[in-house]
Amino acid sequence: MIPLDKYADYIDIETLTRAGQYYYEGKIIDIQWNENILSAEALGIETYQIKLTIVENNIAEHICSCPIDQEDLCKHKVGLIIHLQEERLRKILDYEG
Question: pLDDT at position 96, please?
């Protein structure tokens, strides 16, 4: 499992940078929750399917249909994690606001 607040420890700076670009350019689309599974599509040369299973603030499972080794956090998965972190921050700010 990967703690949500420590995911950056599991990737290199290049992946984080590319993931941020991917997310902020709007290439992570159709983002949906289904119980504890966050899914989306990543637009690129092909469209890739991404799924993150979240259990008690940990990423219990991460899947992407891209050709990158599934043990790794690819830019598509990290782009979805960035969305998740922003979603969590918005909830905190809305609660405190």
Answer: 62
